Amino acid sequence: MAQYTILSTKKIAPTLKEEMVQRGIDVLEEEFITIKPILNQIKQVEIKPWIEHPVEIAVVFTSQHAAATVNKYLRPFDTYIIPGNWRVFCLSGATKESAQQHILAEQLIDTAPNATELAAKIIAHGQFKQVVFFCGNQRREELPRLLKEAGIEVVEIVVYETIATPVLATNNLDAVLFFSPSAVKSFFSVNTLKKDTPCFAIGATTAAAIGEYTDNKVITSDTPSPETMLASVLFYLQNIDLYK
Fold first, then answer.
1. Strand partners, 110
2. Is 226 left (phi over 0), alpha (psi -120 to 50) or beta?
3. How far apart are CA 164 and CA 185, in angstroms?
4. DSSP label at 153?
């Protein structure tokens, strides 16, 4: 019988789940959001000028879903387009991995663990007075606001939609894992937590979103990866007395 029960607000890799089970942790999984890529001719017309732009442009991704959707526009039919004019700034972790699929290594200018630090790096870079920001319809405000305050024009292209799919969760949980601010909003739209239930966040932006809904303890993953996040959960549960 499992000693602990945790809730992941998105499905995790079966190998990770099995590792937790082996350590006496039951992992409940519920998808609190659905991602719908926007793939149509209208969006293609919107993106095409930036692929064919005659000079270097800064391209920004803060979501793996945005990078994955753009990948589909760069692989029409049996062709494969590498937009050589793009200079990419993106979040580290899964977003970086997805963005790297359509650019050369030297086109990746910088990464950061969260949107606020990424905005600071773009501003500090100093070369670009305009960026193309591929994002979702529920993107956070931090990055575009900071860039605009620094005098940098932000061209936003929405390439996917986030649809909330809230689920009532059991209140008998030892931890809840969050991987995006959108999932945080969806979860807390129908759930509350006991005061001693900690929340784990994939990054600082998600942690900040959790803080908008609860005063419970929030532990942020050292790096934005599910593996690191679950290692943090395991350490917490195995050393729970240290956190009291």
1. 89
2. alpha
3. 8
4. E
Among 154, 125, 124, residue whose Cα is nearest residue 140: 154
Per residue in 194-218, pLDDT tens? 999 999 999 888 999 999 999 999 9
Whole-number Å distance between alpha carbons of 200 and 177: 5
Q: What stretches of the chain show up as alpha helix (H) in DSSP?
A: 14-22, 41-51, 64-73, 94-99, 115-125, 142-149, 181-188, 204-211, 226-238
Q: What gap in Å lies between CA 23 and CA 241, rounded to an integer?
A: 18
Phi, psi of 20 (to 5 degrees): -65, -40
Q: Are 69 and 49 in contact (CB under 8 A)?
A: no
Tokens of 107: 């086109």
Q: Can you tell me the distance from the alpha carbon of 22 to that of 209, in angstroms, rounded to the nearest whole number?
A: 31
Q: Encoding tokens for residue 105?
A: 């290594």
What would the two tokens of residue 161 be? Answer: 């939609």
Handedness of CA 221, 65, 188, 143 (dihedral sign): positive
Integer Cα distance of 190 and 192 in angstroms: 7
Rounded Cα distance between 244 and 225, Å, is 26
Low-confidence residues of the chain, pLDDT below 50? none
C-beta of residue 99 within 8 angstroms of C-beta of residue 90: yes
The answer to whether 147 touches 125, Cβ cutoff 8 Å, is no
Q: What is the pLDDT of residues 50-87, one digit of tens each?
A: 999 999 999 999 999 999 999 999 987 677 788 889 99
Structure tokens at 5: 């029960």
From 168, 172, 218, select the one nearest 2 (Cα to Cα). Answer: 172
Q: Which residues of 172-201 are buried (b: 16+ CB within 10 A; e: fewer)?
A: ebbbbbbbbbbbbbbbbeebebeeebbbbb
